[in-house]
């Protein structure tokens, strides 16, 4: 293969790059959701997390991915360059998901400290109840942090790949 053919092949493979990466990450997200449902992590997201921040983070992630799908399609097939101002809300959303995860951490720790200060357990049943309340607060803290981190990281990687393809258009 001569140099011109190689460069043409490279350009064609780059044209499919944006849509390919977005598709890979969305498939990865759906596989993760399936695995969460299979091993009951969704129970923690939607039942144990009494703040519902994890649900809000996942909802923001899914809405942001629908916008990313549209932008990826526009770059890939319509050859439309996306303005930076159109992508700023998605960058803000990725930071907001991380921040919401941290807020959930603080709420969970406040629940732990609030329950830990109320220890007036005389019987073992009362002590078990206090330990269960402390564990509930820790669950909220950890699940919101994990959800915020994972969703934010995946969205930021998608946005960086979109920016690279947008600049190379």
Task: Please tell me about this protein's structure.
With 169 residues, the chain is mostly helical. The protein has one domain (3-167). It has helices at residues 3-15, 17-38, 41-48, 53-76, 84-116, 124-167. Helix 4 packs antiparallel against helix 5 (84-116). The radius of gyration is 22 Å and the shape is elongated. Mean pLDDT is 80; it is low at 1-13.
Characteristic key phrases:
mainly alpha, elongated, 6 helices, 169 residues, disordered N terminus
Low-confidence stretches: 1-13
Average pLDDT rating = 80
Distance N terminus to C terminus?
25 Å
Figure out the total of helices: 6
Topology, element by element:
Layout: H1 3-15, H2 17-38, H3 41-48, H4 53-76, H5 84-116, H6 124-167
Task: Provide a brief overview of the structure.
The chain is mainly alpha-helical and 169 residues long.
């Amino acid at each position: 293969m001569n140099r011109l053919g190689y460069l043409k092949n490279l350009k064609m493979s780059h044209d499919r790059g944006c849509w390919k990466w977005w598709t890979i990450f969305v498939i990865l997200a759906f596989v993760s959701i399936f695995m969460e449902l299979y091993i009951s992590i969704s129970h923690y997201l939607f039942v144990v997390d009494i703040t519902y921040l994890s649900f809000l983070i996942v909802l923001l992630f899914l809405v942001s991915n629908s916008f990313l799908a549209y932008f990826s399609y526009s770059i890939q097939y319509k050859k439309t360059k996306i303005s930076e101002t159109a992508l700023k809300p998605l960058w803000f959303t990725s930071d907001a998901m991380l921040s919401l995860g941290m807020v959930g951490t603080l709420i969970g720790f406040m629940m732990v400290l609030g329950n830990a200060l109320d220890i007036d357990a005389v019987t073992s049943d009362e002590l078990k109840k206090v330990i269960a309340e402390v564990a509930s607060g820790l669950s909220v803290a950890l699940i919101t942090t994990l959800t915020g981190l994972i969703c934010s990281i995946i969205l930021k990687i998608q946005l960086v790949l979109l920016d690279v393809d947008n600049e190379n258009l």
